[in-house]
Structure formats: structure tokens, C-alpha cells
Amino acid sequence: MSLVPYREESLILDDPTSQSLIIVNPTSGTLSYFRQIDPDHLNDRSRPPATSIATFICPQCGTEIDATNCRTIPNHSDHRRSRSGSESISSSSRINLPGRYFQLLQKQHQHTNSISLSDTLDHKETSSSGFFIPPDLFIPGYFHKFFKTLSLLGNGARGSVYKVVHKIGDTDLGVFALKKIPIGNDMVWFQKCIREVKALSALTHKSANLITYNHVWLEMDDSCGLVRTADGTSEAGVGKIPCLFILQQFCEGGNLEDCILRDVFDKFPDLAPIDERKQRFRMKRKEKMEHLGSRRVGLNTRQIISILRDISRGLHELHDIGLIHRDLKPSNCLLLQKFNKEAYNSAEDIEDCFPTIVIGDLGESQMEGESRTATGATGTLEFTAPEVIIPGSGGQKSLRKDYNEYTFSADLYSLGMICYFIVFAELPFQTQLSISELKINIKNFQFNKKEMIEKHKRLKLKPIDLKIFDIMESLLSPNVARRPRAKDVEKFLDQMLLSSTVDDDRIFEEREEMTEAPQESFVSIMDADDCIPISDYPLALPQREEKENEHSRETSNQQRSIKIMIPIFFLTAFILNFSESHTYLNYLTLFLIGFSIRGTATDNHLILSILGIIFLFLITGKIYLRPN
Ligand SMILES: Nc1ncnc2c1ncn2[C@@H]1O[C@H](COP(=O)(O)OP(=O)(O)OP(=O)(O)O)[C@@H](O)[C@H]1O
Fold first, then answer.
1. What CATH number is given to the structural domain containing 200?
2. How would DSSP label each residue in 48-73?
3. Residue 564 lies in a domain
4. What is the ipTM for the molecules in this complex?
5. Which end of the chain is more exposed for a tag (fewer CB within 10 A), N or C?
6. Is 0.90 surpassed by the pTM of this model?
7. Domain total for the chain?
């Protein structure tokens, strides 16, 4: 038995023989009992080894003991953030609630409800309302008993997302995002909405780049979201209908679309909250004073790589379990921490240059090989791969199967479009197009790398590694077979990160100022001995690029030599024609000139040309200086 001081002046009594411990809190006079969990059940990578104190859980509700005295064991993302030092740890992980926690809470609540008279009345109300959903699937009062709404985070096509705090009595236990989807009496709609939860339940471990789902339940609630009166109080009783509640990890940094437009490119400054506008104004004034007024906007190379790598990791995990996301777009990519421009731009550590991104909203996802429903519904058009777009305006249904099934490659195309968006803060399509025009534009879209590099320079964005354009080109290829797999993109980006340094941005800037093929030296960096050869990746774009450069260099050299050689050739033929002596010198000259014309673009062929000209002079000298 050991005695260890714990937080708030409490003590831990540890008994290794019974694999249990008791926390004694003399101030509140409470005793809490924890039992050690079976090490075989530790399939969660984020958990510490079985000997750690964090492997003790409450046998009743499954809550883990707080191992680090107010802090839980940091997972991948917390770890990244703590090094940047910019934010405190995520609110939802303040208490490490295990997967079963909310289910146990729900069971407990249902049990209490069944013996509570008022709640029974509620229950009757539900069952008498004639909805198709069996009444025992509803958990009346669960939301209002255990959650408090803090704000509306956003509205999607299916429902609204709220920032909520989970509370028991007066104790706040963490902040979560809660998606509320009105179901009404529509069974098909219900089945569709529940897909999101089913999809994520296929994941057996906690993923660093996929949103974590905590709980899902059905409850009667207001159909029209959070309604507030002028004095800020909630308006009740707008008509209750069955709603699906999906509780998930709260992502403090919001979505990638807003972050890129608002925080990175300073677009729509008028929509920003007043405090933010004031701060921006102060920053701009400071920049002006420091003569930094013309500072370039956009993300730097490491930030772009960090974003793409997080998304491709998430995709890789989804694809590994056979799931196709189908609606990958910036507003479905969520930032675990707020993007603080100054702090992240100046981060020395590569891992700290952008907040961790998780992929959310699996509402459109499907299993690979599963037939898509032929309703014409796709994800968001601009991010949809051309091969899965159903022609037409989307209104009429065709009897003919004029669409392709979704594949993993369709998700990779969406990743390419996300890459385009984070680089340029816009999409390659005009904004005012009708649906059918947009579909045509998407089908005809061809990524032209050269034009995009020009565009990037013209917009005076922060210099970036030109390999980013190679990645975009292959991901946005209309040819499905040419698109790399998520795993390949992840590997390739890992490699790029390994070989990139903080100084790279300066190097790219200098290179951009030089007009001559700037990417060549980067290719040589990637080909260095300590790197994995690019040929190991299916995304071996730089090699192809190098070959193309070599080929064009060769062609232009040949053209130049032909231009020089043609007049010399005619001159030789003319002289030979009038020469009476057909010496070996004449023939040697012809041979050398001919050889240099058909020769490859090497320095040797220049030497041969010069030799040819010398011989030519010798012959002419021989002819004209010949004694009669
Ligand atoms: N877990 C979360 N944490 C923080 N904010 C979130 C979370 N989930 C969603 N949001 C915010 O709520 C918004 C709406 O999310 P939702 O998934 O319902 O719709 P969407 O993806 O924006 O649109 P659509 O439904 O058309 O695909 C998001 O854009 C995001 O800003």
C-alpha cells in the first residue's frame, strides 16, 4: 500500500495487490474508488503503458483517472499544440471521457426517467405524436439535463452545429460540438443522417486526423435551431419534432475555409468581430511603421504541407477501412486550435506551423464498391471529381446509368481542389455559374502547371516550393489512374517536410526572383542520398519534370546548331563543287559537319562543329593559295 499526494490536497491510497486505488479528499470528505484496467484492453494508441496511473478507471462509469494532475495524457494534437505554446489544451479533453461514458450516462438517465412522473408524461407525449421512430428510442430530457448551449457554430445542409458544455449538476466537464439534425417523420432521411455515425463507428481506434464522435441519441426538440429573443433568452415551444443529436469533438479553430479566407488572406474583413478588426488594424499600422506594408499574403510551404498531410492521413485511415468520404471540402476540415497568424508564421518547429486538422462530416460517406444512390446528389460540386458528376442540371432523373461510381480517387481529386483553394484562396471556376455550366466547367477543367505558377507570381503570394504544383497537377488529373493514393501523398509530403527547413521560404523567394528554372536545385535536394529516392513513390513528378526539361534543352540546342550548320554546309558543298582536287580533307570536312548536325546536344558536338570550320578554312586556303 502506498500513499501519494494528489491534486487539491487529496491523497491516493494505492493497493497493488487488489489493482485498485482510492482517492481521499479530506476537504470535501469524499472517497473515489478506481480499478486498474486490463492491459489487453489498451488498444488505444494514445494511452500510456499499463503500469501508469492513467490506466485506473472508475468501475461504474469508466472515467479514467486524471494522470497528470489536471491534464490528461496529451494525444498527437495536444502534443503539437503544447509545443507551440499558443493555447491551452482542448476543452473537450480536459476530462478524458471513455467511449462508454455517455452511454452509461444515458442508461442512468433513462432509468431515473422511468421512475420520474414528469418525465413519464414527456415520454407519453412522444409516443402519442405518431412518429415512425419507436418511442423507446427517444431519450427525453437528456440534452437539457446534461448540456448547456454556448453558441451556434454553423449551419450545414442537414442541420445546425452548436458549441455545448457537458455538465453534471454545476460541474462543467468539457466542451463539445453538437450537431442537431431535424428528422421529422422521414425514415429515408433518418437512415441517411445516421450514416455519419455508422461510418465513424467502423473506426476501432481514436484517429489523430478524423473527428471523434462521442455519442448519438434521439430526442424531441425545436425544429428551427437556437431561437433567441431580443434580450438574449431562448424562445421555447416553436414546435418539437424528432431530432438526431450527434455529439462530437469540439474543434476550437473552426473550419479551414473560414481560416484561409479570413485569417490567412484577410478576405471579408468587414465580417470579422470588432475585436479582431481592431487587432488587424493595429497589426497593419505596425507593419506600415516597420515598412512591411508590402508583405506577401498566403501560406508558406510548410503550412501547406502540414494541412495536406493531415488531410491525407485522415483520408488514408478512412480508405483503409473501405470508406469513401465523398464530400471532402475545406468547410469539412476542422482545425483543432485557433490559427494565430503571428505565432504560427514564426514557428520554428515544422510540427507547429499550422493547427492540426481533422476531417469531419461523414454524412455523405459510403463503402467502397457500394452503389451510389442515383438521385443526382453528389458532394459539393466544386470539389467533386469530374468522373462522378452526373451531366445535366441535376433536376431530372435519367433512366440511363449515366454516372460513374465513387472511388477512393474521387476523394483524392477533392484533396487536389482543397490544395488549390489553400494556395490561391479561390477556386478555378467562376462564381456566378448555373449548375449545368459549372458541371461543364468541372468536366473540362485542366490544371496547367505553368499558368498556375505564373498566376501565383502575379498575385504576389508568399513563395512556395514548386512541388506543391506537381502535387496539385497529379491530384487534379482528369485521368483517375494518374491520381496517387492517400497513402502515397502522405508519404511524399512527409518526405518533403523532412527535407524542408525554415530557411526554405527565403530560398524559394530568391529562386522566384531568378527567372531560370528554379525547381532544378530543389530536385537535387530531394534526390540527395539521405532522402528516399523519388522513384519509390508513384507520385514521382519531379523526375518526370526533370526529363521534360532535359528534352526541351536538347531540342533547343539542336535547333541552334542546325541554324549554324546549314550555311556552313552549303558553303562547303559550293567550294567542293568548284574545287578540282578531291582530297581526303574535303571528305573529312563533310563528314565532321554532317556528324555535328545529327549529333546530340552535348559539348562534343560543338567541338566537332569548330573542327569542321577549321578544316573548311584549310580547304579553301588550299584551293586559293594553290600555286598555278
Ligand atoms: N466539431 C466541430 N467543431 C467546431 N465547429 C464545427 C464542428 N462541426 C462543424 N462545425 C462548424 O459548423 C459548420 C457546419 O457544419 P456541418 O458539418 O453541419 O456543415 P458544412 O459541412 O459546413 O456544410 P454541408 O452540410 O453543406 O456539408 C462547419 O462549417 C463548421 O464551421
1. 3.30.200.20
2. PPTTSGGGEE-TTT-PBP-TTSS-PP
3. yes
4. 0.96
5. C
6. no
7. 4
| Alpha helices (H) along 476-540 | 486-499, 504-513, 519-526
Domain boundary among 439, 468, 484: 484
476/483 Cα distance (integer angstroms): 7
Nearest CA to ligand 1 atom 19: 156
Main-chain phi, psi angles of 244, to 5 degrees = -100, 130
Q: Is 184 in the pocket of ligand 1 (CB under 6 A)?
A: no
Kindly state the cell numbers that stand for 501: 527547413
C-alpha cell at position 59:
468501475
Report the alpha-carbon distance of residue 127 to residue 328 in Å, rounded.
Answer: 38
Nearest atom of ligand 1 to the alpha carbon of 249: 1
Regarding the beta carbon of 255 and ligand 1, being less than 6 Å apart is answered yes
* Structural domain contains residue 86: no
Q: Which of 461, 484, 507 is the last residue of a domain?
A: 484
Q: Are both 450 and 594 inside the same structural domain?
A: no
Q: How far is CA 154 from CA 178, 334, 425, 489, in A?
A: 11, 12, 20, 30
Say if residue 473 is in the same domain as residue 362: yes
On whether both 245 and 281 belong to a single domain, the answer is no
Q: Which amino acid is at 250?
A: F
Q: Specify whether 478 is located in the same domain as 568.
A: no
* Coil, strand or helix at 92: helix
Residue 305 within any structural domain of the chain: yes
Ligand 1 pocket mutation pick from 211, 249, 255 by most atoms within 8 angstroms of CB: 255
For 261-321, the three-class secondary structure string (H helix, E strand, C coil) is HHHHCCCCHHHCCHHHHHHHHHHHHHHHHCCCCCCCECCCHHHHHHHHHHHHHHHHHHHHC
Residue 335's CATH number: 1.10.510.10
For this structure, is 327 an active site residue?
Answer: yes
Same domain, 163 and 280: no
| Residue from 90, 161, 251 whose mutation best tests the ligand 1 pocket (most atoms within 8 A of CB) | 161
What atom in ligand 1 is closest to the CA of residue 255?
31
Q: Compute the CA torsion angle 227, 231, 236, 241 (nearest 10 deg).
A: 0
Domain extent, residue 584, equals 560-624
Taking the C-alpha atoms of residue 191 and residue 181, their distance in angstroms, rounded to an integer, is 12
SS3 584: helix
Q: Is residue 74 part of a domain?
A: no
* Catalytic-labelled residue, pool 14, 221, 263, 327: 327
Indicate if 245 and 273 belong to the same structural domain. no
Question: What distances in angstroms separate CA 127 from CA 101, 120, 123, 131, 135, one per listed residue?
Answer: 27, 11, 6, 8, 5
DSSP 8-state secondary structure symbol assigned to residue 41:
G
Distance 361 CA to ligand 1 centre (A): 7
Residues 414, 339 share a domain: yes
Q: Both 328 and 430 in a single domain?
A: yes
Sequence length of the chain is 628
- Do 157 and 121 touch, CB atoms closer than 8 A? no
Is residue 176 in contact with ligand 1, taking CB distance under 6 Å?
no
